[in-house]
Structure formats: C-alpha cells, structure tokens
Design a protein that fits this description.
The chain is of the alpha+beta class. The chain has helices at 10-22, 47-59, 63-70, 72-79; strands at residues 27-30, 36-45, 80-83, 90-97, 101-108. It folds into two domains: 27-46 and 82-111, no CATH class; 47-80, no CATH class. Strands 1, 2, 3, 4 and 5 form a five-stranded antiparallel sheet that branches. A hairpin with a 3-residue loop joins β4 and β5 (101-108). The radius of gyration is 17 Å and the shape is globular.
Length: 117
C-alpha cells in the first residue's frame, strides 16, 4: 500500500478515503512508523470456507473449534475472505507494538437501518 501525504487538503483526504473504502481487498495502516501501528483489513463470510471449516471441526470432534476459540483471528481467516472495507462484515485489526508484539482484534460491523427509527 502506498503512503499519501494529505496534510491540509480536505478534498484530497475525502477522495482518498472514498477510494480506500471501495478498493477490493484493502488494508488500511494507521499511525505508520509510530510505535503503535494499526493495520485494518475487511472480511466477508465465505460459505465454502465456513462449510469446510465446520467439516474439519466435526472430524476433529470439536478440538479444532477449541483452537479457533483461543485464536479468533484464525477462525476469521478460516471462514471469511478479504473484501473492501465498504462491504466488510468483520474487521481484523492488527496492532503492532514496535515490531516486538502483535495483538489481533476481530470486530463485527453493525449496520444501522434508519427506516426503523
């Protein structure tokens, strides 16, 4: 992913963010070069990956599910495919601390429909 200097130009910032949201299989890197770097990737559920993952869970008598419970980002990778951030159902947030330690967060995106309000 290329870095773009957008300091001060609001129009360029909005165009860049729109392009980033619509780009397929994008990864957004926040605070690049700082000690706490964040990498965000969007994912959508893949029916085939989910099907084969559950077959594996059944064949291992639930042991695979236990391992995937301990490492939720592995479960995300096993059941979802990368997508544009605009279409993503889940986000994988990778937080890197000075290149020494990495923490993964899996977050579900909730969409609000204002027709009910």
């Amino acid at each position: 992913m290329k870095m773009v200097n957008l300091n001060g130009d609001l129009k360029k910032q909005n165009e860049y963010l729109d392009q980033l949201l619509r780009a397929p299989k994008t990864t957004s890197i926040l605070h690049q070069g700082s000690p706490e770097e964040l990498e965000i990737t969007g994912y959508v559920r893949s029916k085939w990956k989910t099907f084969f993952t559950w077959i594996g869970i059944t064949l291992t008598l639930g042991i695979l599910r236990l391992v995937l419970y301990w490492y939720p980002h592995w479960l995300l990778l096993a059941t979802h495919s990368p997508s544009a951030l605009e279409q993503a159902e889940k986000l994988l947030v990778r937080q890197n601390f000075q290149g020494n330690h990495t923490i993964y967060y899996v977050k579900t995106i909730n969409t609000l429909d204002w027709t009910y309000f």
